[in-house]
Amino acid sequence: MEIVICKTKEEASRKAADLIAALVKADPKCVLGLATGSTPVEMYKCLIADNKAKKISFKTVKTWNLDEYWGLAGTHDQSYRYFMDKNLFDSIDINKKNTHVLNGLAKDWRKEVKAYEAAIEKAGGIDLQVLGIGSDGHIAFNEPGSALTSRTRIVSLTPQTIKDNARFFKKAADVPRQALSMGVGSIMEARRIVLLAFGENKAEAVKGMVEGGISQFCTASVLQLHDDAWIFCDEAAAKKLKLKKYYAWRAEEALKAEFA
């Protein structure tokens, strides 16, 4: 696990985008796993800028998203399909047929999640998975208590997650209570993971993820076991880490090696 601590979320987002851009350049047919929420938006802006400057092309890239609210159509302005179109896909040269988001209105969610995982496997697996982290340490919608071997499934959201997401809806009652989500085990199969964490409200979660014990009560902590996980955070999110100086030194060396 490499911990890249930056002064601002803009700097962290740019560095994370550089890793993704390098992969797209090296493998134009790569498979990306993408995330929603406010955290990756700045990084997506960086990738859009790179695409418009013709530094990278997404024409043959394939993407699969982590999750989708259960009960929302892809046209709903708070659905994750809508989010991805608005914040990334509509602004880059990607083929929309190559972008995949779970169907929140699927008649049979069991068939939907099984087909989703099968499609990822058929594509060769995810080369790089983007993640955010919840204030309680969850990744995707794998709430505290989720099995660390869990697969893509339907999940019930905790009151904290509903509260955190209520800012995107007119009122808290409008927030869906369930979602379809990749499981922790599904996420861990990605060859590389890039997680973004910004703001003081994520500091406790980042501490648990990086320096806490591996536990289903902080599902992000399982990333300690991943062979190639990169954590990009601002100083506010990193403020509770004990080994910040060591992480900074190690990350500097790792980034040099990455772009040598």
Write up this protein:
The chain has 260 residues and is an alpha/beta fold. It has one domain (2-258): Rossmann fold. Helix content is 34%, strand content 16%. The protein has 8 helices and 10 strands. The chain has helices at residues 9-26, 41-52, 80-87, 109-122, 159-165, 184-188, 203-211, 244-258; strands at 2-6, 31-34, 62-65, 67-69, 99-100, 128-131, 153-156, 178-181, 192-197, 229-234. The strands form 2 sheets. Strands 1-10-9-6-2-3-5 form a 7-stranded parallel sheet, sandwiched between helices. The protein has a 3-stranded antiparallel sheet with strand order 4-8-7. Helix 1 packs across helix 2 (41-52). The longest helix has 18 residues, at 9-26. The chain starts with a strand and ends with a helix.
Please name the CATH architecture: 3-Layer(aba) Sandwich
Strand content: 15-25%
CATH topology value: Rossmann fold
- Count of runs of 4 or more consecutive helical residues: 8
Order of helices and strands: EHEHEEHEHEEHEHEHEH
Largest sheet properties = 7 strands, parallel
Helix content: 25-40%
What overall form do the CA principal axes indicate?
globular
Total of domains: 1
Number of strands: 10
Class from helix and strand fractions? alpha/beta
Strand order of the largest sheet: 1-10-9-6-2-3-5
Taking the alpha carbons of the first and last residues, their distance comes to 19 Å
Which segments are poorly predicted (pLDDT under 50) over 5 or more consecutive residues?
none
Mean pLDDT: 95
The CATH class is Alpha Beta
